[in-house]
Amino acid sequence: MTPTEEQEELRSAVRALLARHEGAAAWRPLTAQIGVAGLAVPEEYGGAGCGAREVHVVMAELGRALSPVPYLGSAVLTVQALLASGDRAACKELLPRLAEGRAVGALAWAERGSWDPAAVRTQAERQSDGAWVLTGSKEYVLDGAAAEVLLVAARTEAGVSLFEVAADGAGVLREAAVTMDQSRALARVVLDGARGRLLGAAGDGERVLRQVRDAACTALAAEQVGAAERCLELTVAHAKDRVQFGRSIGSFQAVKHRLADAYVLVESARSAALGAAFAADAGGPEAGRAAAVAKSVCSEAFSAVAAEMIQLHGGIGITWEHEAHRYFKRAHATGQLFGPPAEHRARLAAELELWG
User: Fold this and answer.
1) What is the residue-wise DSSP string for 153-166?
2) Which residues of the chain have a pLDDT value below 50?
3) Which string of DSSP letters, residue by residue, matches 285-334?
4) What is the pLDDT of residues 275-295, one digit of tens each?
5) How far is the CA of 179 from the CAs of 141, 242, 327, 330, in angstroms?
6) How far apart are CA 64 and CA 57, in angstroms?
7) For residue range 72-92, what is the model confidence (pLDDT) as tens digits?
8) Which of 117, 155, 307, 350 has its CA 20 to 30 A from that of 202?
9) Residue 208: is it exposed, middle or buried by C-beta count within 10 angstroms (0-12/13-18/19+)?
10) Burial class (CB in 10 A: 0-12, 13-18, 19+), 145
11) Could you tell me the pTM of the whole model?
12) Alpha-carbon gap, residue 251 to 240, rounded angstroms
């Protein structure tokens, strides 16, 4: 699982750019100078035609910096949903804009706190003129308040289906959500008779969303590993510099043990996340299983390491001025995003027929 020379160059370029541009201001140079938005977009639609391993590299660096740029929601969820839909006309129309960063996409999917594709209850009804009208509400829509391209999962008579809805069209209300993790923008989208365009085949939405969920979990696992790695780096540096009883706290055996345990968690999570990225590029049934493993392992590892970061930083670790609390919030928020670890272990066990 050794990164290629090109992947290492990508990592260095993204890290250097994020060091120069803070916050949301990094999105334009990331797309214009490095082309991150189009990494996973096929060349025929204006992208670089790369795979999950390149996405892994970018997500890990964004996680290290706790960057708020809309990469996960737009370049992963929206792009993968369009590709999985098999709608070539929609891909030809929308993917070039997303790949160039000229537009940000959002996938409105979760309802009632669930990302289970079977839980979609938003309704789509076909009118006498052939148009589709959508009614319902969506939660936890990544970058949903500002996106120019809005995809919505809704239920038709044929089953769950995927639609494109005009983001600022009639019958669409988008509200930015107040979140614990202020470095990730989430929104609530309410549809009241909004007109939509069917993408792909009616009733094919559950398959599309399951595929997107695996891609999302694989990408998010990389972000969690990058953030956990940064937590460990900051904590080790603090342990070397902080002096108690005339010596650095890192020299105490108890602190060494805790840092060693955190290191094992980070490296185990790294293996799980990389394994999911390789499995995604290889395709096949193992991709979904590896994604479930990565989401579970990396969520719990990041939460544990972020908590250890606060503990070993002492009083300063709980202050607003120190960045430890930001990693702690991101850890717990990402642990729930796309479903908590227990949910993914349960679906993995069911797929492997381990119940009984």
Assistant:
1) EEEETTEEEEEEEE
2) none
3) THHHHHHHHHHHHHHHHHHHHHHHHHHHHGGGGGSSSSTHHHHHHHHHHH
4) 999 999 999 889 999 999 999
5) 12, 33, 14, 10
6) 11
7) 999 999 999 999 999 999 999
8) 350
9) buried
10) middle
11) 0.95
12) 8
Separation of alpha carbons 23 and 343, rounded Å: 32
The pLDDT of residue 74 is: 98
* Residue 133 phi, psi (nearest 5): -125, 130
Distance of CA 198 to the CA centre of its chain: 25
Number of H helices, E strands in the chain: 10, 9
| Alpha-carbon torsion angle 97, 103, 109, 111, nearest 10 | -170
Residues 6+ apart with CB under 8 A from 343: none
Which residue is listed with tokens 């928020």?
333
CA–CA separation, 98 vs 105, rounded Å? 7
Q: What residue type is 32 in one-letter code? A: A
Q: Round to whole Å and give the CA distance between 303 and 328.
A: 7
Q: Which residues share a beta bridge with 196?
A: 132, 165
Candidates 45, 124, 114; CA nearest to 78 is 45
Q: Closest by alpha carbon to 181, among 215, 142, 238, 216?
A: 142
